[in-house]
Amino acid sequence: MKKQILSTLLCVLAAQLVMAQSITASGTVKNEKGQAVASALVQEADTKTATYTDSTGFFTLSLKGNSAIVVSARGYKDEKVTGKDNLLVVLKPGKSSAKALNLDDPNKPAAGVPLENKNQGTAFFNVSGASGSLFNISHKEDTKGSRYLVGDGWAKGYVVDKTGATVKNDNFAYNYDKINGSLLLTQDKRAAVDVDRDQIKSFTIYNKLDQPETYQLITAINPTHYTQVLSDGSKYKVYKYTKTTFVKSDFKTDGMTSTGNHYDEYVDEPTYYVLNVKTSALQKISLKAKAIKQVFAADADKVKAYFSDHADDDINDTFLSNLADSLN
Q1: What phi and psi values does residue 160 have, to the nearest 5 degrees?
Q2: CA dist list (Å): 295 to 21, 217, 283, 289
Q3: Order of all β-strands in the sheet with 68-72
């Protein structure tokens, strides 16, 4: 009798252990045309743990049980599926349930969804997976670079809204998602909301050197991602647009030779533009002396003098910004 009871208890315990074990869901998110949906939010329905799809639409997400997962992306209807390996999630066009933060009253996000819901927008950001945060943006530990402007952290900053008013709040911290073009705002550094792009004229984030970096939506450069403003004068405006792409590890070897990298990587590709305010001509340039002199040809003498005075300086973002400032 004792053996039977012990056996029953062991079976129950084993079943409980199996149920308590986490599983990993993985798969690919595509649209009805078979195109990969990058930067889609993949979220466990019960725990709200979340991750993003990469540039190929692929994701992996650790689940605490046999939970369902909800996949959300801008321009598509939410899709709820059972979490398992090798999923193929097909999103259909429509309106996502994602909500955006209302800048006028951060405690009243769009559509009346309470901030405590932590489910407003496709942007969820976890500073540290070890902090017990509600949202865990998972990635390989050896991934190089970051999809976020500030990396795995937050920075102080402020927003200028569509009316020109400056929105500052010491309780707010910011980051920018370079992959999907979202300005992220957090109050607790555990979860973030995606600030409605239509409400933003510009935003400023302070970098690691505590220097302000200002970004605007320059539709002639990119209509969905923000562009950094290096100089904003009455004669010339200088912009830097950074395209960030996710490159998966591609290491291969035949025992004799090897190619590729062991690690995944986020790669930044900057492009520079100069806007002539008088002519409204927007020109893409490279950080080369010849290209810079050509784009500022109307002020050739001043440009020549500037190059002479800064002959030992590297031609970089700072050089281009300071040159334009000196001409404005």
Answers
A1: -100, 120
A2: 61, 22, 8, 10
A3: 50-52, 41-44, 68-72, 79-82
Q: Is 12 helix (H, G, I), strand (E, B) or coil?
A: helix
Q: Decide: helix, strand or coil at residue 129.
A: helix
Assign residue 96 a region (left: φ > 0; alpha: ψ between -120 and 50; beta: otherwise).
beta
- Within 13 Å of residue 64, how many CA atoms lie on the same side as its CB? 9
Which domains are assigned to the chain?
Answer: 2-91 (2.60.40.1120), 104-208 (no CATH), 217-328 (no CATH)
Structure confidence by residue, pLDDT tens digits, 77-128: 889 988 887 889 999 988 766 544 444 444 433 322 222 223 333 333 322 2
Among residues 287, 290, 146, 18, the alpha carbon closest in space to that of 10 is found at: 18
Residue 182 in contact with residue 121, Cβ under 8 Å? yes
Cα torsion through 182, 123, 108, 91, rounded to 10: 100
Instruction: Indicate if the alpha-carbon torsion angle 88, 93, 94, 100 is positive or negative.
Output: positive
- Separation between Cα atoms, residue 73 and residue 178, nearest integer Å: 16
pLDDT digits (tens, 9 = 90+) for 165-176: 888 888 889 999
